Amino acid sequence: xxxxxxxxxxxxxxxxxxxxxxxxxxxxxxxxxxxxxxxxxxxxxxxxxxxxxxxxxxxxxxxxxxxxxxxxxxxxxxxxxxxxxxxxxxxxxxxxxxxxxxxxxxxxxxxxxxxxxxxxxxxxxxxxxxxxxxxxx
Length: 137
Prior knowledge:
By secondary structure, the chain is mainly alpha-helical.
């Protein structure tokens, strides 16, 4: 499935809810479904600068595609981590670097997060794209 197809799927899932309390719950549910994060990867090197909460990301190249892993100590942010991983993981570095991530605005996530949380989302995306650039051999 392409990055845009995944984004469209997320937009559709969020559009099922009019109330933002329900959408926050959906984010929390995504976070609860996130694969367990290795304790050994909770290092300073994997910590994302610019996030209010603690957020860790790792990336590795498998079969030409990047596989991201991530976690956060904040339940809502963990849901955002899960969303970003869902969209970008299992794609080539070029696809990730070139991706236009429109789903964040389409589901109105920016409008419903605090400025510091929005800065964190930007920092997470920046780090994910930097991993893609670094792994683009």
